[in-house]
Amino acid sequence: MMIETLEQRRHPQKSMKIQRPIGTYDVTPDEAAVWSMLEDRIRAWFRSYNYGEIRTPVFEYTDLFKRGVGEASDIVAKEMYTFEDRGGRSLTLRPEGTASVVRAYIENGLAQKSPGVAKLFYLAPMFRYERKQKGRFRQHVQYGCEVFGAPGPDIDLELLVMVNQFYSELGLDELDLQINSVGCPKCRPAHREIFVKWAIPFLGQFCGDCCRRFEVNPLRMFDCKEERCQELLQEAPLLRHHLCTECETHFAALREGLDAFGIRYMENPKLVRGLDYYTRTAFEMSYAPLGSQGVLMGGGRYDGLTEYLDGPPTPGIGFGAGMERLLLILKETGKVPAVSTGLDLFLVTLGERAAREGGKLLLALRRDGFRCDRDYTGKSLRKQFQAADKLGARYAAVIGDNELEKQVIVLKDLKQGTQQEIPWKDGFAELKTVLHVSLFR
Ligand SMILES: [Zn+2]
Ligand SMILES: [Zn+2]
To answer: Cα–Cα distance between 391 and 38 in angstroms, integer?
Structure first.
């Protein structure tokens, strides 16, 4: 009989090597500095358009997404992380942003708290069981916004002006904006009838997904990625030519507005959003040089969604965008904004007393917002300087018994290779001034 060791009893599954789950990634400090800078820019950008941040739970009742995203969508049919909790309720990790935000808008009575129009943004992780593929993650971060209570088209225009401004400022100026109108419940049924009549003779030639879409929502066949289906659809009657007067006027006003702002766009009649509550404006923006790999954001109007989720009838519009994709595009084009991760000052000490007194210097500098560090492992003087170098420190502050005696600090400028003695007195006032002038000038 095998005798279990104490070690095995403590760690029964130790033979399995622990790694992060497939489709996830870690963000290590250098990368996180870039993330956090981009997140700051996104928040500042939304704020300048008077959007307020909304934070919703990472998981919701599964029904919200079934209704809000649509049972026939790929997300709900194939990609959700759904589980039963200990109380037997079906919960799902949030796969996209809009449904949760609409729910929160209704549940928190944000309609009453806003002057007619509520502008909300989010920046949060989403979860989808994606196939293993470059640039696809099972936990990914999306930023986006939703506007409630504005029927458009002026908010539709402002949204596109806003994203255009943001990406241009990041240096991505070769932008490809595609727009379309998906009509409304008034004009869609007539087109649907014409489309269905057209499609029936070809149905056998479409892929299985398309046949399924044909049953549930034929318009979504335009979404198909299969070349064969796209070829067949070349001849299909387009909704674009069957819009009602209101939809046509709305779309024309949006196009005129884009022209007035000098924003280039292409009309893409195949840009559809297949669910009934999507209305009128649909759009997608890419970084043109990267083709289909360059999609930055997509979104559109959903005047029927709030009511569909048991809220009062409220027009809505929004977009969602992936952080990972944005980072990838910035990297591939060499446009990642520079982030300083270097240290302002490294404390180098010799002897126990100097080490203790040096701690007071660090506290004073950190209080002023300087980024400082020191050695914690009893390194020699030479090794301490090596550490300062490795951390990219601009300055080293050197303190030993001599300096304590004379009440001075030796400040070495590691970039220029110069050094000076600075008096210790007045809470290190002179040292702080030197650092301020050189670092924050
Ligand atoms: Zn219409
Ligand atoms: Zn298809």
So the answer is: 23
Q: How far is the CA of 204 from the centre of ligand 2 (A)?
A: 11
pTM higher than 0.70 = yes
How far is the centre of ligand 1, averaged over its atoms, from the C-alpha of 315 (Å)?
A: 14
Mean pLDDT of the chain: 92
pLDDT in tens, 315-365: 999 999 999 999 999 999 999 988 887 899 999 999 999 999 999 999 999
CA of 247 to the centre of ligand 1 (A): 4
Residues whose Cβ atom is located within 5 A of ion ligand 1: 183-184, 186-187, 244, 247
Only one residue has tokens 């006027």, namely: 249
Gap from CA of 239 to ligand 1 centroid (Å): 10
Considering only CA atoms, which of 275, 297, 274, 279 is closest in space to residue 287?
297
Residues in the chain: 441
Distance 175 CA to ligand 2 centre (A): 28
What is the Å distance from ligand 2's center to 380 Cα?
68
Beta strands 82-84 and 90-93 are antiparallel
- Going from the Cα of 280 to the center of ligand 1, the distance in angstroms, rounded, reads 7
Distance CA 72, CA 125 (A): 23
Distance 264 CA to ligand 2 centre (A): 30
pLDDT tens per residue, range 201-251: 988 899 998 888 888 888 888 888 888 998 998 889 988 889 999 999 999
Give SS3 for 182. Answer: coil
Q: Give yes or no for residue 12 having a pLDDT over 80.
A: no
Q: How far is the CA of 229 from the centre of ligand 2 (A)?
A: 5
> Is the preceding peptide bond at 218 cis, omega within 30 degrees of 0?
no
279 CA to centre of ligand 1 in angstroms: 8
Q: How far is the CA of 187 from the centre of ligand 1 (A)?
A: 4
Q: How remote is the C-alpha of 224 from its chain's centroid?
A: 25
286-326: per-residue pLDDT in tens?
999 988 889 999 999 999 999 999 999 999 999 999 999 99
**Bigger pLDDT: 270 vs 97:** 97
- The ligand minimizing its distance to the Cα of 242 is 1
pLDDT confidence of residue 2: 53
From the CA of 203, the nearest ligand is: 2
Q: Give the torsion through C-alpha atoms of 310, 313, 319, 323, to 10 deg.
A: -30
pLDDT of residue 3: 58
Hey, what domains does the chain have and what are their CATH numbers? 29-183+266-332 (3.30.930.10), 345-436 (3.40.50.800)
DSSP state of 130: P
